[in-house]
Amino acid sequence: QYSTVFGRVWLSVVFVFRILVFVVAIQQVWSDEQKDFICNTAQPGCNNVCYDKFFPISHIRLWALQIIFVTCPSLMVVAHVKYREMKDEKYTHVHKGKHMYANPGKKRGGL
């Protein structure tokens, strides 16, 4: 309702593709990232430090972060619209049918 058809289809395809790749491929490929990693010293904690130096970004966490960044803007818009609708509904109930906003469906695309 608040975006174009192309925008909704694009967001859905990107979201489904990212979730599908995350569930099917990434967790199987990088499930135990440090299993076969060998450090050249025997100091305690060396494996974690060496691994962090060798691979500074975890691929699983990167894809999870990308999924969050892709979905957050649309979820924030939906939450904002729901908040405005509830606020207008309360105002209409208290003021006997008078709306808080002049024309809530037409003003700035309904947002």
TrEMBL record:
InterPro entries: Connexin, Connexin_CS, Connexin_N, Connexin_N_sf
Record-annotated membrane-spanning stretches: 9-30, 62-81
Chief place of localization: other
Keyword Transmembrane recorded: yes
SMART domains documented for this protein: CNX (SM00037)
CC terms in the record's Gene Ontology section: gap junction; plasma membrane
Pfam families: Connexin
Compartments it resides in: Cell junction, Gap junction; Cell membrane
Domain Connexin N-terminal: start-end pairs: 28-61
Lipid bilayer topology: Multi-pass membrane protein
Keywords: Cell junction, Cell membrane, Gap junction, Membrane, Transmembrane, Transmembrane helix
PANTHER family: CONNEXIN, GAP JUNCTION PROTEIN
Protein name according to UniProt: Connexin N-terminal domain-containing protein
